[in-house]
Amino acid sequence: MRGTRWIRENLGLALLAFGMAFALWAAAVWEENPPVERTLADLPLVFHGLGSDHVVFEASAERIRLRLRVPRAIEGSLSPQDVEAFVDVQGLGEGAYERPVQIRIQRRGIQILSVDPPRVRFRLERVESREVPVSIQVLGQPAIGYQAGNPLPALSEVRVSGPRSRVAVAAMAVGRIQIDGVRQSVETQVRLAAVDPQGVLLPELNVEPEQITVTVPVEQRLGFRELPVRVALQGRPARGYQLTEISVDPPTVTLTGDPRRLEEIGSFISTEPIDLSEARGELIAEVPLVLPAGVALVGSPATVEVRLQVEPILSTQVFQQVPIMVEGLRPGVIARLSPETVDVILRGPLPYVENLRPDELRVWIDVGDLERGTYTLTPTVTLSAPVANLSWTLIPPNIQVSLMPAPTPTRSR
């Protein structure tokens, strides 16, 4: 009895002591590992309990924003894979529903602060499928003088599957193919999408196969012919120059006229001759085409733009035993060179190189920043006038330079 009475008299004190101890422990844990807020802004929403013969569509949300309170110790390692947002549809039949979003967290010590949205509206229907015809839309027009035939899909029908109500209104599977400006038949893979009778997309439906091969035949129209342009030239460039580049815009043209006249033209259409006599540099000219009688150019005037590049022929000349000049030599210092001359091989435009005189060529070294001693230096080549596309080689490429005090003159007695 006395023991029981003691317990009754001291129970309150014991509970108070336990509560104070727990509070102190919680405060210590909080101080050592304080919680922080963490937001998972793009968490995918899944539906649990969904049978293979049913499908969810028209869901009011597919992603969830979740705010959590997380212990700092695990905040850095928490990932979306640790959290699942789901709606339980177990046992539901066809119809429209609104259900709460549930959260499952794989890690301990995490508190959910908010779920956005907390509830989701959706429709649940039985999955059905059926065959629908394929329709291919051809976009654009082939090049002038060409015509496109009807598109030829590899399959005339494909299977669509998805919610029963959407399958019921599916009219066809459509695809698009681009042929703008083409000059030959096009064969490519085209992605298909299901549409209703008004052409509105039905994104809830799957199409099998999703892509098919489509061919659009393209051929030249009767009375039209496309030919490359050949630039006719006469004369020769200036001496020492050569034609290095020729371009024409457009490179091909489309002609129209009597089919027999078109066949008689040959494999190209020529321009009026361009005179290259004494030409040098870049030449740009609008040049007429030579068109047979009864033949016309389609879509533009009967001229083309021709660009010609006439550049010097590169040549080589060797200058032997060219003396090396020394610049920047300080007072009281002399330079000894080994060797004192080099051979210079010049490569550049023929008109310049073949007329270059030895006195127009200068080979030198600069020793202005050097102290006394022995150095290996690469001489510099300077010409009397700068020339583009000029290069040189020195033999030998380097020389040895010794900088030493100038000898003191002796006094005669």
TrEMBL record:
InterPro entries: c-di-AMP_regulator, YbbR. It comes from the Bacteria. Signal peptide: none annotated. PANTHER family: CDAA REGULATORY PROTEIN CDAR. This is CdaA regulatory protein CdaR. It comes from Candidatus Thermoflexus japonica. The gene is cdaR.
